[in-house]
Amino acid sequence: MMTVEESNIDDATQVNYKTWKKNSKHLYDYIQTSALTWPSLTLQWLPDVEKVEGLTKSRLLLGSFSSGLAEEQLIMLNFMKDASPRSRLNPQKYDSIKEEFVITASSGLKPINVQQRISHSGEVNRARSMPQNPDLIATITSNGDINVFDRTKHPSQPTKFQSEIELTYHSKEGFGLSWNPRKEAQLVSCASDGKVAYWDLNRWVRGTSMSPSTTISESVGLNDVKHLPIHDSIIGYVGEESVFKMHDTRNDETISLGRESHSEINCLSFNTGNDYCVATGDSDGMIDIWDIRTRKAFKEFKAHDEDITCLEWNWSNHGILASGSGDKTCKIWDFANEDDDQLLFVHGGHMAGITDLGWSPDEQWMLGTVAYDNSVHVWQPSTALV
């Protein structure tokens, strides 16, 4: 692997990275970085966490983005951490050749490693596991096709591409994909073709093609879709020209949540602790916090210097929001803090734009992030800072 100096990364980014590396021992209670063969546009922690002999074992779901230079893959990673609440990976254990923070043999732990690779047709824009059965994984691709895999039916190393279910409807690239948390085997997708599609996989019959049970059409491209956590029939979706809408399948009603800006909205996240609160991030680096009852944003602020690509509320501390951006940073915000400065922490260890992030289901302050620099980071801010 090339060193930072030998790569085509600009000088300013290299300087920022070296500064971050120098200061990292003061910033984190835990950090582990790993280099991937290709960037991943997607990251999800799987909900099943195993605790054995003082160790916590988790799994991360990623996908490859090779720009057609290699066969694409759906990737499952193993992550292991000392279960002690005061466990700490010494950030000074830095491998300058690999450009990674590494686990030493004396720690008794294992670095992030690949558990399974599954052959995939097309770049993996998003991969999400079904809440009711995490072994079922849906993906959406650069051409809008959706594939559903049962990972237990695939070997640990890739063979030929073969998904269990293939869903074809979208005509353009898609990034929006969300399983219904309250109804098993129900999935919703959206894409740059301006379409939203509901899929009820309970209706799927082997050997036959399947159409969406419900569709919505917009005049602009759509970027993200999520289910309202407290409801089994309401979704929110966002897209170009500042589109932000909610849809209820019970009566086929759609409402718009408006704002003055016409910048495209890239992502949204519903707050699991506040039934009516949702955050959105746009291409101008703005975050809006909305009350869906009033259909208005009650907070709007400049969060990043470039487009916001992903954001997610913390599942435990409901006032905490993480956001990732093309400006190479992941930021943690504290909206329970009534002061003007609600920025809590900045993770500046990536050398290219962040593509996705996720909170660990086991450690309330631990995050995973992936970026265009082929890296995956698992990190936890210092308790002295948060």
Automatic annotation (TrEMBL):
Signal peptide: none annotated. GO terms for cellular component: CAF-1 complex; cytoplasm; nuclear replication fork; nucleosome. GO terms for biological process: DNA replication-dependent chromatin assembly; mitotic recombination-dependent replication fork processing. Residues 16-77 form the Histone-binding protein RBBP4-like N-terminal domain. WD repeats lie at residues 167-202, 278-300, 301-343, 347-386. Its main location: nucleus. PROSITE patterns: WD_REPEATS_2 (PS50082), WD_REPEATS_REGION (PS50294). It comes from the Eukaryota. It is found in: Nucleus. InterPro entries: Histone-bd_RBBP4-like_N (IPR022052), WD40/YVTN_repeat-like_dom_sf (IPR015943), WD40_PAC1 (IPR020472), WD40_repeat_dom_sf (IPR036322), WD40_rpt (IPR001680), WD_repeat_RBAP46/RBAP48/MSI1 (IPR050459). GO terms for molecular function: histone binding. Pfam families: CAF1C_H4-bd, WD40. Keywords: Chromatin regulator, Nucleus, Repeat, WD repeat. This is Histone-binding protein RBBP4-like N-terminal domain-containing protein. It comes from Kuraishia capsulata CBS 1993.
